């Protein structure tokens, strides 16, 4: 973490999520790295390397792309969050616009998939979705249309990887996520989008709706570890999973109740450690 990049705005409207820039920095500096074991496991299994042309849907601030690019892959990322995308650009294209800079190793696009194939004109042979689904009702609704838009850019027989939360009993973070559902539902009963238990076939259901053929799966341990409870609260709220709760109550109450829910996972040195398991599904177009 870089303290100068993670700022608190306590005087902001307590009924709204933190400003987009702060939340994007919290995601990039605190939370995104928690999924690094998932990225590495997928890349190891698929032997991602110089021959790989990857399209990352929901690329966020670009860590998964950075890991793939370090293996030599040609990477393209798409995300609708401008603040996260700006951080991805700083990571992946630090010399963009500088005279004499080397050719771009990555391409980044806001919102939908790019109009064409990869930088070399060849179709993508790998499409990844590393934003896990399966912990909120309706959290996969936008994924099928995104896949349908991206698949025409992929080579015949290309690989698509979908990711999701593992079983609640294997995810220590699940009880903390229930805080968001409880606060939201207590204020606005039957509001859609609340926490729900992960279902065994969440990923397979998305694959079927997108016309993909499952071709293997795996589970990866991704513990959430934080330097202190404040970092844990900021990191978890940066995911966006608590936004509805903040709107239904206020940010200070959500922060307080999330901090209380973290007590079972605090260690003697004040660090926070929550074991989690994530699942990935490998599909063929």
Describe the structure.
The chain is of the alpha/beta class. Helix content is about 35%, strand content about 20%. The chain contains ten helices and nine strands. It has helices spanning about 20-30, 35-45, 65-70, 80-90, 145-150, 175-185, 200-210, 230-235, 245-250, 250-260, and strands at about 55, 75-80, 105-110, 125-135, 155-165, 215-220, 225, 270-275, 275-285. It has a seven-stranded mixed β-sheet with strand order 3-2-1-4-5-9-6, sandwiched between helices. It has a two-stranded antiparallel sheet with strand order 7-8. Strand 1 (about 55), helix 3 (about 65-70) and strand 2 (about 75-80) form a beta-alpha-beta unit. Helix 1 (about 20-30) packs across helix 8 and helix 2 (about 35-45) runs parallel beside helix 3. About 45% of the residues are buried. The model is unreliable at about 1-15 and about 100-105 (pLDDT under 50).
Topology of this structure?
Layout lengths: L19 H12 L4 H11 L6 E5 L5 H8 L3 E6 L2 H11 L13 E5 L13 E10 L9 H8 L3 E12 L8 H14 L14 H8 L3 E9 L2 E3 L2 H9 L5 H6 L2 H11 L10 E3 L2 E8 L1
Parallel strand pairs: 1-2, 1-4, 2-3, 4-5
Antiparallel strand pairs: 5-9, 6-9, 7-8
Helix pairs in contact: 1-8, 2-3, 6-10
């Amino acid at each position: 973490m870089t303290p100068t990049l993670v700022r608190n705005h306590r005087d902001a409207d307590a009924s709204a999520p933190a400003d987009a820039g702060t939340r994007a920095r919290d995601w990039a500096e605190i939370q995104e790295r928690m999924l690094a074991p998932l990225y590495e496991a997928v890349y190891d299994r698929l032997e991602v390397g110089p021959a790989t042309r990857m399209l990352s849907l929901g690329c966020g601030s670009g860590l998964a792309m950075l890991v793939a690019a370090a293996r030599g892959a040609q990477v393209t990322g798409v995300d609708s969050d401008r603040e996260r995308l700006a951080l991805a650009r700083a990571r992946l294209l630090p010399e963009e616009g500088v005279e004499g800079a080397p050719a771009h190793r990555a391409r980044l696009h806001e919102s939908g998939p790019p109009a064409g194939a990869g930088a070399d004109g060849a179709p993508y042979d790998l499409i990844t979705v590393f934003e896990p689904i399966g912990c909120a009702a309706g959290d996969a609704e936008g994924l099928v249309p995104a896949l349908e838009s991206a698949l025409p850019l992929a080579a015949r027989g290309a690989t698509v990887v979908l990711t999701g939360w593992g079983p609640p009993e294997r995810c220590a973070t699940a009880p903390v996520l229930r805080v968001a559902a409880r606060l939201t539902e207590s204020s606005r009963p039957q509001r859609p989008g609340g926490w729900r238990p992960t279902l065994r076939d969440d990923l397979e259901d998305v694959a079927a709706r997108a016309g993909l053929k499952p071709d293997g799966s795996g589970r990866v341990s991704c513990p959430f570890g934080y330097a202190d409870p404040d970092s844990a609260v900021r990191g978890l709220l940066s995911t966006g999973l608590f936004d509805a709760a903040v709107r239904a109550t206020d940010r200070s109450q959500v922060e307080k109740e999330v901090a209380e829910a973290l007590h079972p996972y605090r260690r003697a040195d004040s660090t926070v450690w929550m074991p989690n398991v994530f699942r990935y599904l490998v599909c063929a177009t």
